[in-house]
Amino acid sequence: MLRAGEAIQIPQDVEAAAMNDPVIAEIESLLRWQHEHYGDLREGEVADYIPELTKTPADLFGIAVTLHDGRTVAVGDASYPFTIQSISKVYTFPMLLDLIGREGIYSLVGVQPSSDPFNAITLDPRTNRPFNPMVNTGAIAVAGRLREVLGPNAFEAILDTFSRAAGRALDVDEKVFESERQEGHRNRAIGHLLRAAGVFHASVDEVLDLYFRQCSVLVTAEDLAMMGATLSNLGAHPVTRDPVFGLEAVRDTLSVMFGCGMYDGAGDWATRVGLPAKSGVGGGIMGVVNRQLGVGVFSPRLDEVGNSVRGKLCCIHLSENLGMHPFDATNAGSSFFSAISGRR
Ligand code: DON
Q1: Strand ranges in 52-153 using DSSP code E only, listed in sequence order
Q2: Residue 22 has pLDDT above 50, yes or no
Q3: Atom of ligand 1 at shortest distance to CA of 50?
Q4: Which ligand 1 atom is nearest residue 86's CA?
Q5: Residue 158 in contact with residue 216, Cβ under 8 Å?
Q6: pLDDT tens digits for range 45-74
Q7: Class of domain 12-341
Q8: Ligand 1 binding pocket mutation candidate from 136, 257, 285 (most atoms within 8 A of CB)
Q9: What DSSP designation does 282 have?
Q10: What is the pTM of this model?
């Protein structure tokens, strides 16, 4: 277990390789271009339904990419801490899948895109279960089962898993936690809906405390890139080699992110960007290129469906320029990425 203040060290050979590396240089020039060209954008609003979030300076902007071997490029406010919010759903889902297996998890939650907003108070009418684990109904169902399986120490286990995926000991923003706990009435309604439908049997208040806490974990854009790289690296942290998630869990998590991670914007995202990704109302977006890299962007102004405006533009730009869309007919990404793989 990582303790507060502990961070993994990037081995010197990785750091040295990164300094004279044409792949790193190319990614760095793309991230610098994004920072320069999108830096003046003022579209979108900071989320205000959790009052504490309005205190985040709206125009912060950080971008980071971590390759599957731990080499990292970061520009702007990439080490500024903000709350992970819904991106936490990407890590509680595989955690529970590893604990209870596919049969267990898919009797709890589906994998269907819902086309609903993230906080819709609704279940899939065909199954009376949440549509998928990326919307709030599904994530609260996952939190409920984690509480049942792990007992009162469930949050410590969640924080430990997130920290292992990031490679450093993460912490909680207690003010954001309290703020959402006070104002999270829609999520309380979801908790009672799930309890009434028999999706979980634990106390609604305890389950919601767990969910609000997981959303209040502090990360940076650099952490998100590293946490994405852990998923891209078959579930093992790129530097520590810690096997955080099993292979089935990674496969299913990336699939459900691809179909459902960007909520009612998911179809547009799949077409334009083509990467499994997840957004959070704290302003983060995390994306993954399987076996290659993780992307983390932080910019708190959100569009109408709750996705970071600049974050989305950065992911589109990166995907187009590195040929990362899996169905890109020019196949430009293959040669770029074989350059990555060929180097180490
Ligand atoms: O459930 C909520 O309202 C928040 N804690 C998380 C929502 C969120 O991040 C949605 N993502 N864009």
Answers
A1: 62-67, 72-76, 82-83
A2: yes
A3: 3
A4: 9
A5: no
A6: 999 999 999 999 999 999 999 999 999 999
A7: alpha beta
A8: 136
A9: T
A10: 0.93
